[in-house]
Amino acid sequence: MTGGQSDGLSSGQLELARTGILLARADGEQQTKMIGQQFAGRVGLFLRVDDFDASYERMVAVSVQFVSSPRIEPYGKIAVFLDLEGNRWDLLGPRLQSADGESRTCSR
Length: 108
Description:
This protein is an alpha+beta fold and 108 residues long. The protein is built from three helices and five strands, in the order ααβαββββ. A hairpin with a 5-residue loop joins β4 (76-82) and β5 (88-92).
């Protein structure tokens, strides 16, 4: 360690080391008409999280609009929500497994 910094990122770099996403806003009438329809009514964006239940509860607490209840699929726990522009997202958690390795059902 030199100058009070670890061998990793500096404190300035750590503040910049955040995950984020930038979605473009519609530009003009034609693009505005397409808001929420970019994926023909299907989910087109995916937010994968390590702790589905905690993420779901945080999102519900701040009034995120979910259009499906949480459910279990072979690939993980999932619920569909809308962003501020009406785009459909999957909130996707890891596949749930019991101690014996069998998939579990959703408690919601």
